[in-house]
Design a protein that fits this description.
This protein is of the alpha/beta class and 435 residues long. Helices cover 39% and strands 14% of the residues. It is globular, with a radius of gyration of 24 Å. The N and C termini lie far apart (67 Å). The relative contact order is 0.12.
């Protein structure tokens, strides 16, 4: 397999001594390791199929050409163009993960020690990682008791003169009520970063989730609705700064300007309050290929998730001790990344911890995917008054300790969905009877 050098940094023309852009290309055996990882198995039939594919791949390697670019190449460009069309935005930027996208937004805000960032009390730790790392103060906003999303009223109560950003999170893919979040934030001059890690493809009042705030970042980690081979993210922005996102992704490298006797320049990027230094959040061509493949069938994936949620809701909806997954309405469409189930302990006779134990004995796996962030050791280690935070987030405490869990919802047969719903109903019946 010959190399096809294309990288701008090297001599890729027809020369006596070329300099290939990729240091070591992948050969047929390397490729087979990937094939065997993606399509795993064992036994004689599997081994025979692997041998057949190995022969075909070796033949393909003899007539094919190795790529000259493994990161930030044509496939990344294609993905970003298709994301622009799908999301209805400009300058979508493919990054290594959603957390890297968050970091670019935080750097744009020139976030530093003493600044404050509002985050929902219940979400994944990545939402608060960068603010904590630079010494900013994370302020925990209580959640809505139905959706578990950030409560805009509590958000406004917790704004101070030091608040620089607010990060609403579409938990489980259910839309945050973005209108009041945006109105409050912009009235106070605060940047809004939509954590849309769960929300790719959902909508709020005719707009795609993640495209409403000043910044929005999506995750394509392995557990998300679609993935880019295990990691990856898309960052978008509604600010004029969006034209600089690709420089912000890769160290401020500026191909439009060259310093003397060199190929490019490296620049500081202009943030909200002054220049900032970019980091490296590059993504690979293979990641782009993986995401493109799943993006092209995403409509069917979303439809299956919605169908499964409706089936489970129809079976559980008559139980007065349960709050089933909200379905949205004419103005909102969730992504059904997670199925949220809530128990009313007073009507069920016990709380969600008992329900989870009973479901486990029936072979049904459940988990409340997120704990209140302030319960993690890192918050105490950094000097936060955890008891005071708990008291300021009573809804988060109640739903986490007593009410909510998540059910599996995807890649299940109709029979499995019915079994799971019936197991929930049987467990609630046992709880009511005290057995």
């Amino acid at each position: 397999m010959s190399k096809k050098p294309t990288d701008f940094r090297y001599n890729t023309g027809s020369t006596a001594v070329p300099w290939a852009a990729v240091g070591e290309s992948y050969n047929a055996d390397d490729i087979m390791d990937v094939v065997k990882f993606l399509l795993q198995g064992e036994g004689d039939t599997y081994d025979s199929a692997v041998a057949e594919v190995r022969g075909a791949v070796k033949h393909l390697a003899e007539v094919g050409t190795a790529p000259g670019k493994l990161s930030l190449g044509d496939k990344v460009v294609q993905l970003e163009q298709e994301m622009d069309a799908y999301l209805g935005v400009e300058d979508s930027t493919f990054v290594s993960c959603a957390t890297s996208g968050f970091e670019i937004a935080f750097r744009y805000a020139n976030l530093q020690k003493g600044d404050e960032v509002l985050v929902p009390a219940i979400t994944f730790a990545a939402t608060m990682a960068y603010p904590l790392a630079v010494g900013a103060k994370v302020v925990f906003v209580d959640v809505d008791p139905v959706t578990l999303n950030m409560d805009p009223a509590d958000m406004e109560r917790k704004i101070t003169s030091r608040t620089k950003m607010v990060v609403p999170v579409h938990i489980g893919g259910y839309p945050v009520d973005m209108d009041p979040v945006m109105e409050i934030a912009h009235r106070h001059g605060i940047l809004v970063l939509e954590d849309a890690a769960h929300a790719f493809g959902g909508t709020y009042k005719g707009r795609k989730l993640g495209t409403i705030g000043d910044f929005g970042a999506f995750s394509f980690h392995e557990v998300k609705n679609v993935t880019s081979f295990g990691e990856g993210g898309i960052l978008v922005s509604t600010l004029p700064f969006r034209s600089q996102l690709k420089k912000a992704r890769f160290l401020g490298l500026d191909m439009s300007h060259k310093i003397q006797d060199w190929l490019y320049d490296v620049v500081a990027l202009e943030g909200k309050y002054g220049p900032f230094v970019a980091n490296n959040a590059s993504a690979t061509e293979i990641q782009a290929i993986g995401l493109l493949s799943q993006l092209h069938r995403y409509a069917a994936i979303l439809a299956e998730r919605e169908h499964n949620v409706i089936q489970v809701n129809n079976r559980l909806g008559s139980c007065d001790a349960l709050q089933v997954q909200p379905l949205g309405d004419g103005q909102t469409r969730p992504t059904y990344h997670l199925y949220e189930l809530q128990v009313d302990p007073a009507k069920a006779g016990a709380d969600v911890r008992v329900l989870r134990e009973k479901l486990a004995t029936k072979g049904v796996t459940t988990i409340p995917h997120f704990a209140p962030l302030y319960r993690f050791s890192i918050i105490r280690q950094l000097g936060y008054d955890v008891q005071r935070i708990m008291e300021s987030c009573p809804v988060s405490e109640e739903v986490f300790l007593h009410r909510f869990t998540h059910l599996p919802i995807y890649d299940l047969s109709s029979g499995q969905l019915d079994y799971m719903a019936d197991a929930v109903l049987a467990s609630i019946d046992e709880m009511k009877r005290g057995v």
